[in-house]
Specification:
Blueprint: E1 6-9, H1 12-25, H2 31-53, E2 66-71, E3 76-81, H3 88-94, H4 101-108, H5 114-120, H6 131-134, E4 135-143, E5 152-157, E6 162-168, E7 174-181, H7 191-202, E8 209-213, H8 234-242, E9 251-254, H9 271-282, E10 288-296, E11 302-309, E12 324-329, E13 332-335, E14 350-355, H10 364-369, H11 371-394, H12 396-410, H13 413-416, H14 421-427, E15 429-432, E16 441-442, H15 443-448, E17 457-461, H16 465-469, H17 475-480, E18 485-487, H18 490-498, E19 501-502, E20 505-509, H19 523-535, H20 537-547, E21 554-556, E22 565-568, H21 576-584, E23 597-600, H22 605-611, H23 616-633, H24 641-658
Parallel strand pairs: 2-8, 12-14, 17-18, 17-20, 21-23
Antiparallel strand pairs: 1-6, 2-3, 3-7, 4-5, 4-7, 5-6, 8-9, 10-11, 11-14, 12-13, 15-16, 15-18, 19-20, 22-23
Helix pairs in contact: 1-5, 2-7, 11-12, 11-14, 23-24
The structure holds adenosine-5'-diphosphate (ADP).
């Protein structure tokens, strides 16, 4: 089977990515080099890691490096690494296939509108396929470290729907990607041009990137000149022996700095270099919003370089969504997605942690229980929250951008991270009745604007902003000029079930419990309501009987000014909105929805009219109608819409017969 040349068709998704990459990045061609050098560097780091357990993998070639070859006659540029390489199966799995279900879903959602789709490309790493921006044909030859020379693989494609795969002889391990440059990309054959691009994209990479260089002609009478760092190179000795007659052969010379960026002094690193490194570690295409670079010394020495991306990846909400921090131990790459280095609600943070003290053979299991890792996570969390606080304070525009992308993830924070919930609370932003859409009101702003005697932070949860803003529950708050936060994201229910207090102020749903406005309540109103309850006791019981088990009880409302009725739940019950959400997600397992309490507004004409209704059938119809209306008004759905419509029509006809006009209560 292996050995024979197969021609295979790209997965439909791959063709899509390819087209998208080529179309959208044409004006930004040179990034192909960043992607391929980045892959080569990752491959070298993986080899170094695997060789920790089995140094035979180095074979006789322990100096890891990346080399760029230019062949002007053949019009090719090759990127060669002596890293981990790939087996035939691995090539098939990684190149020519897209495994992530998230990517597939994402691609399925592409609109077909070129400009819109192009903007989306930054959301996933363009990776290997960027080679086709500059090449008509790409040849990849590779051999997995540890496999024999007969188990090399050649993959080749012109990026048009199919590729070939065959087994070849390959003497050395690692991968060579050869680009057959297209007409518009010939300038990469130029030594000077290539160097400048390499510098831009690989200076921060810890692996040396080498290019051939013609050494200067040797000085005529020098016999013992070991002057440069290549002096220990065996080839050079040979050259020295032959120097009399031949021009010296070109030598491989390091083009980049080749030191890990994070090991350098903060003050020596330019912002552009930080951004380049970000793109390398994150596979992001766009710039990071900000970063924190720290060296920690003490009981445990480590360096961290953490970035906040400018844009959420499309799979942020996928269950398999990965963490973005890589772990190094003394400059050796250990693992991607080290999820113990950041709490889940900060999973969007990208970057590296390089520890001086962890053992090199540290495994995911060991990380679970390592105290040092706990300390790093605690410090990382603090650092990121601090970074966000600073951003919110100094650069609101940037913070808004951050919030738009990652706010909903941050809202998972108070539930997950009890210790930092107050800090996280300060970073939260909400829509509010005090401002138009869209709003991002902070809790501190809210507290500052609280009216005299107000003690609680009031909020309402709903399915969307319109439903929240127009909810009957807000009526009394509007009347009294009290601001209410509008919580309309799915995660908000989760948030408020764990985040009940901020700066000693209780968060209170306006749709839960007895309306307790504390000192804000008008004594008169309350007394009036109590008196009314007593007076209308019979009426309230009659409504309850009409509605049966649909409601827990019926009581007089102090919340309403314009609506006839609203539904509320007990203070510690699940909110109606939450119950609806669970139902939509098919999670009946969350328990049955709590039975609501119906509150009626005795001053509303519909209710007072009902009170006088002698016909019992008519009364039941009206009661049910009021109940259904209340449900609709808060964004709920009727169990039986058809019956509602029949009932409504019956009443309209009936009322028309009885009196001149329908009450203007809708
Ligand atoms: P990404 O790097 O984001 O995973 P790529 O398309 O760049 O996406 O690469 C896909 C996969 O192909 C890599 O994850 C890696 O497993 C493999 N790969 C690419 N280049 C190399 C290389 N030079 N050496 C070894 N494996 C490679």
């Amino acid at each position: 089977m292996s050995g024979q040349k197969e021609t295979l068709t790209f997965q439909a998704e791959v063709s899509q990515v390819l087209n998208l990459v080529i179309r959208s990045l044409y004006s930004n061609k040179e990034i192909f080099l960043r992607e391929l050098v980045s892959n080569a560097s990752d491959a070298a780091e993986k080899l170094r890691f695997e060789a920790l357990a089995d140094d035979a993998l180095y074979e006789s070639d322990p100096e890891l490096r990346i080399r760029l070859h230019v062949d002007k006659d053949a019009n090719t540029l090759s990127i060669e690494d002596n890293g981990i390489g790939m087996s035939r199966a691995e090539v098939g799995e990684t190149i020519g296939t897209i495994a992530s279900s998230g990517t597939k879903k994402f691609l399925a959602e592409l609109s077909g509108d070129q400009t819109k789709d192009s903007a989306l490309i930054g959301q996933f790493g363009v990776g290997f396929y960027s080679a086709f921006i500059v090449a008509d044909k790409v040849t990849l030859e590779t051999r997995r470290a540890g496999l024999s020379a007969a188990e090399g693989v050649r993959w080749e494609s012109s990026g048009e729907g199919s590729y070939t795969l065959e087994t070849i002889e390959r003497a050395q391990r690692g991968t060579t990607v050869t680009l057959h440059l297209n007409e518009d990309a010939k300038d990469y054959l130029d030594d000077w041009r290539l160097r400048s691009v390499v510098n831009k994209f690989s200076d921060h990479i810890a692996m040396p990137v080498e290019m051939l260089e013609q050494p200067p002609a040797p000085p005529p009478a020098a016999d013992d000149d070991k002057k440069d760092d290549a002096a220990d190179d065996a080839e050079q000795k040979d050259d020295a022996d032959n120097k009399a007659t031949e021009t010296p052969a070109p030598e491989w010379k390091k083009v980049n700095t080749g030191t890990a960026l994070w090991m350098r002094n903060k003050s020596d690193i330019k912002d552009e270099e930080y951004q380049e490194f970000y793109k390398h570690v994150s596979s992001d295409f766009e710039e990071a919003l900000t970063w924190a670079h720290n060296r920690v010394e003490g009981s445990h020495d480590y360096t961290s370089l953490l970035y906040i991306p400018g844009r959420a990846p499309f799979d942020l909400w996928e269950r398999e969504q990965k963490h973005g921090v890589k772990l190094y131990v003394r400059r050796v790459f250990i693992m991607d997605e080290a999820d113990k280095l950041m709490p889940r609600y900060l999973r969007f943070v990208k970057g590296i942690v390089d520890s001086d003290d962890l053992p090199l053979n540290v495994s995911r299991e060991l990380l679970q229980e390592d105290k040092k890792i706990d300390n790093i996570r605690t410090a990382n969390t603090k650092r990121i929250l601090g970074l966000l606080e600073k951003m919110a304070k100094d650069d609101n525009e940037k913070y808004e951008k951050f919030w738009g992308q990652f706010g909903n993830v941050l809202k998972e924070g108070p539930a997950e991270d009890y210790t930092n919930r107050e800090k996280i609370g300060g970073l939260l932003r909400f829509a509010s009745t005090a401002e138009g859409d869209p709003t991002h009101v902070s809790l501190d702003q809210y507290i500052e604007r609280m009216v005299e005697k107000q003690e609680k932070i009031y909020y309402i949860t709903a399915d969307n902003l319109a439903a929240a803003r127009n909810s009957p529950h807000l009526e009394v708050f509007k009347k009294k000029g009290i601001e209410v936060l509008l919580l309309v994201d799915r995660v908000d229910e989760w948030l408020v079930s764990h985040f009940m207090e901020y700066k000693d102020k209780q968060l209170q749903s306006v749709a839960k419990g007895e309306l307790d406005l504390g000192d804000l309540a008008d004594k008169e109103d309350q007394e009036k309501a109590e008196k009314a309850s007593e007076e209308h006791k019979h009426f309230l019981e009659r409504v309850k009987t009409a509605l049966g088990d649909e409601v827990k009880s019926v009581r007089v409302s102090t919340r309403l000014t314009d609506s006839p009725a609203c539904l509320v739940v007990e203070q510690y019950d699940m909110s109606q909105n939450m119950a609806r959400m669970l139902q939509q997600m098919g999670q009946g397992a969350g328990g049955p929805a709590p039975t609501p309490i119906m509150e009626v507004n005795l001053e509303h004409p519909l209710i007072s009219q009902m009170d006088q209704e002698a016909d019992e059938d008519q009364f039941v119809d009206l009661a049910k109608l009021v109940f259904d209306q209340a449900l609709l008004a808060e964004g709920g759905q009727l169990q039986d819409p058809a019956t509602f419509v029949h009932r409504l029509n019956r009443l309209i006809l009936d009322l028309q017969g009885k009196q001149p006009a329908v009450a203007e209560s809708a």
